[in-house]
Amino acid sequence: MSLKIPPGKLLLSETNNVELAKRNILVHPPEPPAEFLMEDTSKGLYVGRTDVLSVPFFWNPSYATNPHIAIVGISGSGKSYFIKTLLIRASFVWGANAIIIDWAGEYKDWVLETGGKLVALGKGNYLNLLDLGGMRPYDRIKQVLRTLEILTDIAQYPEQKRLTEQAIEEAYVRAKFKLDSRDQRDELGNKLEAPTLKDVVKILEEMKQLGTYQYPAELDNAIHRIKSFTREGEDYFAQKSTVNLDEIVSSGLVDLDLTGLPDENARALGALTMLQFIKEKMRLEGAQTTKGVKLITVLDEAWKIAGEENSDVVMIVREGRKYNFSLIIASQNPTDINQAIFSNVGTTFILKTKFENYLDYLQGSLRFSNYMRKKIMQFGVGQTAVNIAFHTPLQFAQTFIIHKIEGEEPIKDFFITFEGVEGVAMAFSISIKKNEFRDRLRRFGLAEEDVQEITSTFEKSSRRMNVIDLALLLEKKRVDRRIVVDFLKEMGVDDATIINIFTKVDFKKSGKVGKPTRLLLKK
Question: pTM of the full predicted structure?
Answer without folding.
Answer: 0.71
